[in-house]
Each structure stands twice: as C-alpha cells, then as structure tokens.
UniProtKB/TrEMBL annotation:
EC number(s) reported in the record: 3.5.1.19
Protein name: Nicotinamidase
Top-level enzyme category: hydrolase
Domain Isochorismatase-like: 4-181
Organism: Epilithonimonas arachidiradicis
GO biological process, one term: pyridine nucleotide biosynthetic process
InterPro entries to which the protein is assigned, alphabetical: Isochorismatase-like_dom (IPR000868), Isochorismatase-like_sf (IPR036380), Isochorismatase_Nicotinamidase (IPR052347)
Pathway note: Cofactor biosynthesis; nicotinate biosynthesis; nicotinate from nicotinamide: step 1/1
Keywords recorded for this protein, A-Z: Hydrolase, Metal-binding, Pyridine nucleotide biosynthesis
Entry keyword ATP-binding: no
Length: 201
C-alpha cells in the first residue's frame, strides 16, 4: 500500500511568535522530522496557507474584531488576524522543518473571497487544490496527517482525505490545536475518530 505524509501549514505565522501562533506549535516539528527520517513515504506533501493581503477571512479587511464571525459567501467565517500573507516571512515554512524529502507543495487560501482550511479544497467546496488528483496519480492509498492546527486545517484536511477514499491516519503527537474554545482539541479528536479516521498516539 503506497502511503503519503501530509504536513499541514507548518509556517512561521502559526508557530511561536507568529501572527496566529498555535500554543506549543514548535514542539511538533522534531516529531514530524523524525517521522520523515524513520518511515518510507512514497510522497511527502506540504500544504501552505498563501493568502492575498486583502483576504476576506482577515478581521482587518472587514472592519471586524478578531474572534467575530461573519457570513462569507454563505459560509460562516471566523475572523482571523492577518496571517500567511503571500511573500511574507509569516507565510514561509518554519526553518526547523526538514524539507529534504518533500515531493510536493500545495498552496491554499489564494482566493480572496473564500477561506480554505483543508489542503484538498476551499471551505465552500467550489475549488479543489489538486491534492487529491496528485495523490491518486501516484497511486497513494494511505495518508498520514500532521501539522497545524488540529481543530481547523488539520481536521478538514483529514476529513477530506477520508471522504476522497484514502485510508486516513492522524498523528496525535504531530499536531496542536488553536483551541479557540477550550475543548476544541478533544472534541476534534473524538469527531475524527467517530468518522473513521485512525488516531495514532
């Protein structure tokens, strides 16, 4: 069975000191590096949040406060601080992430009108990123997922992988949650397990 590792959004803005820092984000990087070192993956894919500066998920572009929710093209949209703006340091992959074995990079969130948590498609399910086609072209059957953040981009990437027919595993030690709500991480793990996604602890 051919397998791929999908590393979700390990970018400066989600790590320590970033504009949208995930608590303890930096602690997962050695674990991810070890996975790549100790396992044989047929493909290793990075996803990268890659927003235009005028992206409508940014509170600053809507005259809103961070944490508010608006309706964006018919979908509830949480208002985030500006983050992962194309071409900025914040959008770059963290320097400690070993990229020697990476075979492909998927950029997402490029459309100003709609956010894209999943590495597979936007939140409206209008536009695919090409990730599913890439994996299927390379006969990948199993995907393992790590990265940031558990309760948003990792969660939706895992669900879309499972729905696309891949055997889907999440490395619990390779992800951290934003925890906008206190039980967000725990609820996400329960939710994913209930859907049929394997949690590797």
């Amino acid at each position: 069975m051919k397998k791929a590792l999908i590393i979700v959004d390990v970018q400066n803005d989600f790590c320590e000191g970033g504009a949208l820092a995930v608590p303890e984000a930096n602690s997962i990087i050695p674990y991810i590096n070890l996975l790549m070192e100790e396992n044989e993956y047929d493909q290793i894919v990075l996803t990268q949040d890659w927003h235009p500066a005028d992206h409508k998920s940014f509170a600053s572009n809507n005259g809103k406060n961070v944490g508010e929710t608006i309706s964006l093209n018919g979908v509830p949209q949480f208002m985030w601080p500006d983050h992962c703006v194309q071409g900025t340091f914040g959008a770059e992959f963290h320097k400690d992430l070993n990229r020697d074995k990476v075979t492909h990079i998927i950029q997402k969130g490029k459309n100003v009108e709609i956010d894209s948590y999943s590495g597979f498609q936007d939140n409206n399910h209008f536009m695919k990123t090409g990730l599913e086609d890439f994996l299927k072209y390379h006969d990948i059957q199993l995907v393992e997922i790590v990265g940031l953040a558990l309760d948003y981009c990792v969660k939706f990437t895992a669900i879309d992988a499972f729905n696309a027919g891949f055997v889907t595993c999440l490395h619990f030690n390779g992800t951290k949650a934003v925890n906008v709500k206190p039980d967000s991480a725990r609820n996400t793990i329960y939710d994913l397990a209930e859907k049929g996604i394997t949690i590797l602890a």
